Amino acid sequence: MGNETQQTLEDIKYTLVYNAPINKVWDAVATSEGLAAWFMPNDMKPVEGHEFHLNAGQFGMSPCKVTEVNPPNRLSFNWGKDWTLTFELKELEGKTEFTLIHGGWDINKATEFGAPHAPIRENMNQGWAGLVKKLQGYVEA
């Protein structure tokens, strides 16, 4: 087996039910202002093909590109050179089931900052655990 074999690491996935209407959750994940409130400053627009940046603080500006917009149920974008971020929303009688999927992990790859994917995935997994709670606080407020 050569080094070019892709060794996929499992997607990071979180599903929570928010006590908030689906449109409010959609606005929190599919608008620049909404994303900035719980995630990172950005210039995202919910338009397929739109290229934007996430301001990752010390790590600088991460290039992203919106790949799918299906309001108010699904938004996907490419993040950096390897990752995909997907937000899935499902209406549950006035509440919203929210699923976050962070994919594109490969044991043989490193981020643009030279960090190997495996430990970064662990860090991000911890980070997302906090962020989906932060989003919950934001939409339920």
Q: Which strand order do you get reading across the main beta sheet?
A: 1-6-5-4-3-2
For the largest beta-sheet, the strand count, sense and barrel status come to: 6 strands, antiparallel
Estimated radius of gyration: 15 Å
What oligomeric state do these chains adopt?
single chain
Please indicate the percent range of residues in DSSP E strands (runs of 2 or more). Answer: 25-35%
Low-confidence stretches: none
Q: Give the SSE order as H and E letters.
A: EHHEEEEEH
Outline type: globular
**Distinct helical segment count:** 3
What separation lies between the terminal Cα atoms?
A: 52 Å
Mean pLDDT: 94
* Percent helix: 25-40%
Structural class: alpha+beta
Task: Walk me through this protein's architecture.
The chain is an alpha+beta fold. The chain contains three helices and six strands, in the order βααβββββα. The protein has helices at 22-30, 32-38, 117-140; strands at residues 12-18, 51-55, 61-70, 74-79, 83-92, 95-103. Strands 1-6-5-4-3-2 form a six-stranded antiparallel sheet, covered by helices on one side. A hairpin with a 3-residue loop joins strand 4 and strand 5 (83-92). Helix 1 (22-30) crosses helix 2. The protein is globular, with a radius of gyration of 15 Å.
